[in-house]
Task: structure prediction
Amino acid sequence: MKTLTAAAAVLFTATLSATALAEVPMDKYNKSCAICHAAGTAGAPKTHDVEAWKPHLAKGEETLMKSVHNGLNAMPPKGMCFDCSDEDYKALIEFMSTPAK
Result:
């Protein structure tokens, strides 16, 4: 099962890489995502914590995007980024779920 989860996470990250914006909209990360993801507030997976993101990525892009749009647990709908496009969300997820560069 761990192998399947790891494979799904790798596949999802590769999909994000292929479809996400070339550049992360850091202004949107700083005003919306960083509030919780920088410190892991309220159980949010921390930015660049690959292990913390694996279970979320393993759910697949459709489920993850649904969670972003509708909110999940303490995360409000759209993560409080009301001007983010789906491409922005994908780039932000890729940025947060991969190791720091």
